[in-house]
Design a protein that fits this description.
TIM Barrel, binds zinc ion, two-stranded parallel ribbon
């Protein structure tokens, strides 16, 4: 109840950003693509026949175009997470937009396309998000943050949080990064199995 109230307030304070979408649930993975982690995620998704959304850092796309192409070829959605994983608070709007555009170029140069953007750390000024919306982007946030990057989190804690917080339309946030690697790969199959058992349709954005 208190958490729901806090979330409502946060959404009021954070215009130009979507935290839940429709009735399905959406698995999202931030900060890749990297060869150490992303292929493991793709293997799990393929095993369960599930599609997901990858918010990618442009720099990583340019470093690992083969991993990027595998994400595309397997039918997942690729999306923009800025070129250098930057915090909006430290940039002017035009510098921020330029970094987002640079990521967009990397996505398109390697054969992808998207109009979905997730701000790194969720940190942007609202007018930076407005500027992106005016340029045709959808700002995709999340409502279930597994905090898989935190070494103190256990797979059990993450799973029970997903069970507690997931509702129709939920956007679940994971990371295909070195920091989350083992914890995330351990909990992901259990999360998918639980969602499927509960009758949720899992979709890519
Ligand atoms: Zn990120």
């Amino acid at each position: 109840m208190v958490i729901t109230f806090i979330k409502t307030i946060l959404q009021r304070l954070y215009p130009y950003g979507e935290c839940r979408v429709g009735k399905a649930v959406y698995l999202t993975f931030d900060d890749g693509p990297i060869p150490e982690v992303t292929p493991g995620v793709l293997d799990i998704l393929a095993r369960y026949g599930v599609k997901a959304t990858f918010f990618m850092v442009g720099e990583n796309i340019d470093k690992h175009p083969d991993v990027f192409r595998r994400v595309l070829e397997e039918g997942h959605t690729v999306a923009n997470h800025s070129y250098n994983h930057i915090k909006g608070f430290r940039y002017t709007t035009s510098a921020y937009l330029a970094n987002v555009s640079k990521c967009q170029d990397a996505i398109e140069r390697h054969g992808g396309q998207t109009r979905l953007f997730r701000p790194p750390y969720g940190r942007t000024f609202w007018w930076q998000r407005r500027a992106l919306v005016e340029r045709g982007y959808r700002i995709i946030l999340w409502d279930v943050l597994t905090r898989d990057y935190n070494p103190r989190r256990t797979p059990e804690e993450m799973l029970s949080q997903v069970k507690r917080e997931t509702r129709p339309g939920s956007i679940i946030n994971f990371h295909d990064s070195l920091k989350s690697n083992e914890r995330m790969l351990k909990v992901l199959p259990r999360v998918i199995e639980w969602l499927q058992k509960e009758g949720y349709e899992i979709k890519a954005l």
